[in-house]
Design a protein that fits this description.
heterodimer; A: mainly beta; 7-stranded mixed sheet; B: mainly beta; 5-stranded antiparallel sheet; 11 strands
């Protein structure tokens, strides 16, 4: 069954702690993305990666970090430097090329206590 | 001003009605236009995509793009309660970056 998995579904963290969100895909897609979704603001791009061992900052990269050591995996770390981390985080993947049809995972709801 | 503007609604219609959703944008370089549907607490799923101007139909869904007016629309005919969701428009130039609207929440009443 091909798809994108994100874990955990819900995550709670204390202020000042780093936390890593998992994203795995078995669609054989080269490109992967991380978005943040807040009420009334739509999706905002945090980071994206077009190929293994390479990634670029999106519109709101401050306070986040990523790695892309394997084609299937693109974990996102929310650091203590992120001032307002409570949000719904979505991972997506796509084939390369101009069509850019992105397929999304089920999301992780992060709450900072 | 946001690059993509979308009325957040909410929009409530009776079952069987036509749902009309739209987005406006400011970047004339956008070439690819998409509509995603997102159920509550789930990831978005792609409904329709269109390249450049024109219409595209898929079952009860019709997407329209008017690049001269920088305006795109999605119509849902014979709406069903299962169509109740948030609908997001998204646009792209010719690269990996998608620009999303804020999403319109639709409720179809049985």
């Amino acid at each position: 069954d091909g798809g994108i998995t994100q874990s955990p579904k819900y995550l709670f963290r204390k202020e000042g702690q780093n936390v890593t969100l998992s994203c795995e895909q078995n669609l054989n897609h080269d490109a992967m993305y991380w978005y943040r979704q807040d009420p009334g603001q739509g999706l905002r791009l945090i980071y994206y990666s077009q190929i293994v061992n390479d990634f670029q900052k999106g519109d709101i990269a401050e306070g986040y970090s990523v790695s892309r050591e394997k084609k299937e995996s693109f974990p996102l770390t929310v650091t203590s430097a992120q001032k307002n981390p409570t949000a719904f985080y979505l991972c997506a993947s796509s084939i390369t090329g101009p069509v850019n049809e992105q397929f999304f995972g089920p999301g992780t709801r992060l709450t900072v206590l | 001003q946001k690059e993509v503007e979308q009325d957040p609604g909410p929009l409530s219609v009776p079952e069987g009605a036509i749902v009309s959703l739209n987005c406006t944008y400011s970047n004339s370089a956008f070439q690819y236009f998409m509509w995603y549907r997102q159920y509550s607490r789930k990831g978005p799923e792609l409904l329709m995509y269109t390249y450049s101007s024109g219409n595209k139909e898929d079952g009860r869904f019709t997407a329209q793009v008017d690049k001269s007016s920088k305006y795109i629309s999605l119509f849902i005919r014979d709406s069903q309660p299962s169509d109740s969701a948030t609908y997001l428009c998204a646009m792209s130039e010719n690269d990996y970056k998608l620009s999303f609207g804020a999403g319109t929440t639709v409720t179809v009443r049985a």
